[in-house]
Amino acid sequence: MSEQWEPRVVAFFCTWCTYTAADLAGISRMAYAPNARIVRVMCSGRIDPQFVLKALADGADGVLIGGCHPGDCHYQSGNYKALRRYTLLKRVLTEMGIEPERVRLEWISASEGDRVQKVMNEMAEQIRRLGPLRLERPPKPHRAAVKEREAVAVSSQGGAR
């Protein structure tokens, strides 16, 4: 019996808007794709691009970032910072050979539970169309090779200090 592949999405949601909207969607019993694992952050501007890269490296097939609408950020300009980082991140993903469509940024206010439902379903479907993310990982070095490299590094520094 073969199991059908389902996309894994990590969603970084601003606590003040998008996370609250996801909570509203749940309370309102709005059904949406269960493919996302939500990570609550204080502000979308606090999401370091390395968080997104780490999520992808650790097995996520896509990443969704949600924040307050521009001009409505509880920290004044956090969502503008998120937009700048997102734009840069899309370029980095392209250079790495990862489809930039695997990462999405959405502005969703606290009262837009229906929008969370729509975006979550769209994201799951988009990742489903793209298929699983297959990252080329370099082979792990053998333990003996690691020990040898460490010994060379210590001896080149003149011994242990």
List the main descriptive attributes of the protein structure presented here.
single chain; 161 residues; four-stranded parallel beta sheet; 5 helices; 4 strands
Characterize the structure shown.
- The structure is a single chain.
- This protein has 161 residues and is an alpha/beta fold.
- Helices cover 43% and strands 14% of the residues.
- It has a single domain, classed as Rossmann fold.
- It has a four-stranded parallel beta sheet with strand order 2-1-3-4, sandwiched between helices.
- Strand 3, helix 3 and strand 4 form a beta-alpha-beta unit.
- Helix 1 packs across helix 4.
- The termini are far apart.
Helical region count? Answer: 5
User: For the record, what CATH class applies?
Assistant: Alpha Beta
> Strand share of the residues?
5-15%
- How many structural domains are formed by the residues? 1
Report the average pLDDT across residues: 91
Largest sheet, if any? 4 strands, parallel
* SS class: alpha/beta
Share of helical residues:
40-55%
The backbone outline, from C-alpha atoms, is globular
Instruction: Provide the succession of SSEs.
Output: EHEHEHEHH
* Annotated CATH topology: Rossmann fold
Evaluate the radius of gyration: 20 Å
Instruction: Note the quaternary state here.
Output: single chain
Distance between the termini: 58 Å
Q: How many beta-strand elements? A: 4
Low-confidence stretches: none
Strand order of the largest sheet: 2-1-3-4
How does CATH name the architecture?
3-Layer(aba) Sandwich
